[in-house]
């Protein structure tokens, strides 16, 4: 049986549906209806958004179409306020680990696509994964997202082995405590296997929700060419008990306002189907230039920096309880600007080639196998310091997922606004570990100030003593303390 044939029966189920939950015409009708909203229209949506509730599509359309500078500023201020209310001033850190760039698909924008002869293909062996993880742990990473092309070499059983391998690597100070996955859509049975080995978030980006653009970007006859197989993969994840899911769009393939509406409709579909549980995270990468990939150099729908800022704020206002990830694809200046608008997770110290962590350690150079070029290549240490300079607290926390607070459980906690009672103390503990074990002198100094300011906030609260006690235990060598 060919790789593609394996999925043919599954595809047939989706082909029977007479429609899916993305209605291109309806989305355009909603955007066109609000082509020029008044200040009053925008402010009435902001009034609702203040309640920290998910917005309806027409309300999101109003914000997306707003071109009035004064109310755009109000949108930014409220987006910032909601992020602080729901997530506090924490920024969660992770780093990707590229496992394989072998891919049977031929996505027009990606350096890993099968027709790209400029890339020399590689899938890491278990020993090579161990080496990569050792370098990452040595730099202070605690959370990773494992990234795979879609090929017979990276099927579910292999993915499970890689996850187990990543968790098995322990060094003097640390280990990877949470491995998220960014791979191809899988079947329910395959997803059950991933759950059994303890995956964190299961990420699959739709890339574009616009049906004709999807067809143009992903050739027929490839697995990725099947729009609905991908669109419904989070439904299958929920059915498999994988309730911590990440959706996303690759911005630059089609009109950014349409894509934000697509993300919202996807969220609504999941919430309505799975008892209020929407995506755990939303990612919004913009296309970056990839080796041997002319399309990625000048995409027709490239999103400007100012529209990018707006889309981040609109997402935060529309889905206030969803984590938002801004990756190192973005240059540091852009990351600095969008962070206060609602971002809750970033990667840092990122290397995106297969084997890149080991290679850069050895040769102090960037690898030749990158999927695309990154915008922010600073070290983890530099970015940790900068986040402290921005009066936020870096967090390496993995407690919720390990305590089973995912899916519906997580939504209950998040929606009751108690997140900061668990999350800020856990951020304090994990930052303390980072400062003791990995930080440079200047980052340690700055980080200690951040810790002090955050500990102060708890004075008079029952958790204050526990925080102080745990910090003492960490100073005397204990690790991985959490609430
Ligand atoms: N192969 C799996 C898939 O396509 O879902 C997962 C790995 S793929 C390398 C991860 C993501 O990288 C894709 O979902 C896409 O959004 C993003 N990507 C692909 N080409 C890109 C480019 N030129 N610039 C930025 N991101 C890109
Ligand atoms: Fe393969 Fe994913 Fe790249 Fe498409 S985006 S070519 S599926 S690695």
Automatic annotation (TrEMBL):
InterPro entries: Aldolase_TIM (IPR013785), BATS_dom (IPR010722), FeFe-hyd_mat_HydG (IPR024007), rSAM (IPR007197), rSAM_sf (IPR058240), ThiH/NoCL/HydG-like (IPR034428)
Iron-sulfur is among the record's keywords: yes
Keywords: 4Fe-4S, Iron, Iron-sulfur, Metal-binding, S-adenosyl-L-methionine
Any single GO BP term: water-soluble vitamin biosynthetic process
GO function terms (MF aspect): 4 iron, 4 sulfur cluster binding; catalytic activity; metal ion binding
Segments forming domain Radical SAM core: 87-321
The protein's required cofactors: [4Fe-4S] cluster
Protein name per its UniProtKB record: [FeFe] hydrogenase H-cluster radical SAM maturase HydG
Lineage: Bacteria, Bacillati, Bacillota, Clostridia, Eubacteriales
């Amino acid at each position: 049986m060919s790789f593609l044939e394996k999925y043919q029966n599954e595809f047939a189920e989706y082909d029977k549906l007479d429609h899916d939950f993305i209605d291109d015409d309806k989305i355009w009708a909603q955007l066109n209806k609000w082509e020029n909203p008044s200040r009053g229209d925008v402010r009435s949506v902001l009034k609702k958004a203040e309640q920290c509730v998910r917005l309806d599509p027409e309300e999101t359309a109003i914000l997306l179409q707003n071109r009035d500078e004064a109310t755009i500023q109000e949108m930014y201020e409220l987006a910032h306020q909601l992020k602080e209310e729901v997530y506090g001033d924490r920024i969660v850190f992770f780093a990707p680990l590229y496992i394989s760039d072998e891919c049977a698909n031929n996505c027009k924008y990606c350096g890993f696509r099968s027709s790209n002869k400029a890339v020399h293909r590689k899938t890491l062996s278990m020993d090579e994964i161990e080496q990569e993880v050792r370098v990452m742990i040595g730099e202070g990473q605690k959370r990773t997202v494992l990234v795979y092309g879609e090929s017979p070499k990276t099927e579910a059983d292999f993915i499970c082995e890689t996850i187990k391998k990543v968790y098995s690597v322990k060094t003097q100070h640390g280990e990877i405590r949470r491995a998220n996955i960014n791979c191809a859509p899988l079947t329910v049975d395959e997803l059950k296997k991933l759950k059994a080995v303890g995956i964190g978030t299961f990420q699959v980006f739709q890339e574009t929700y616009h049906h004709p653009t999807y067809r143009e970007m992903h050739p027929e006859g490839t697995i990725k060419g099947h729009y609905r197989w991908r669109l419904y993969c989070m439904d299958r994840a929920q059915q498999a008990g994988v309730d911590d899911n990440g959706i996303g769009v690759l911005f630059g393939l089609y009109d950014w306002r349409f894509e934000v509406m697509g993300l919202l409709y996807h969220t609504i579909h999941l919430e309505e189907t799975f008892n209020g549980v929407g995506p755990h995270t939303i990612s919004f990468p913009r296309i970056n230039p990839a080796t041997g990939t002319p399309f990625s150099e000048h995409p027709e729908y490239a999103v400007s920096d100012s529209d990018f800022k707006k889309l981040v704020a609109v997402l935060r206002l529309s889905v206030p309880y969803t984590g938002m990830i801004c990756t190192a694809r973005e240059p540091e200046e852009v990351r600095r600007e969008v962070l206060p608008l609602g971002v809750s997770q970033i990667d840092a110290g990122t290397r995106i080639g297969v084997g890149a962590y080991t290679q850069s350690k050895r040769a102090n150079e960037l690898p030749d196998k990158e999927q695309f070029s990154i915008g922010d290549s600073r070290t983890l240490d530099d970015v940790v310091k900068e986040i402290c300079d921005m009066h936020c607290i870096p967090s390496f926390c993995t407690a919720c997922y390990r305590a089973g607070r995912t899916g519906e459980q997580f939504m209950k906690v998040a929606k009751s606004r108690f997140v900061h009672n668990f999350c800020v103390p856990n951020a304090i503990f994990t930052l303390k570990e980072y400062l003791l074990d990995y930080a440079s002198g200047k980052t340690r100094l700055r980080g200690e100030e951040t810790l002090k300011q955050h500990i102060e906030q708890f004075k008079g609260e029952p958790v204050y003593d526990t925080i102080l006690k745990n910090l003492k235990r960490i100073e005397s060598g204990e690790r991985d303390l959490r609430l």
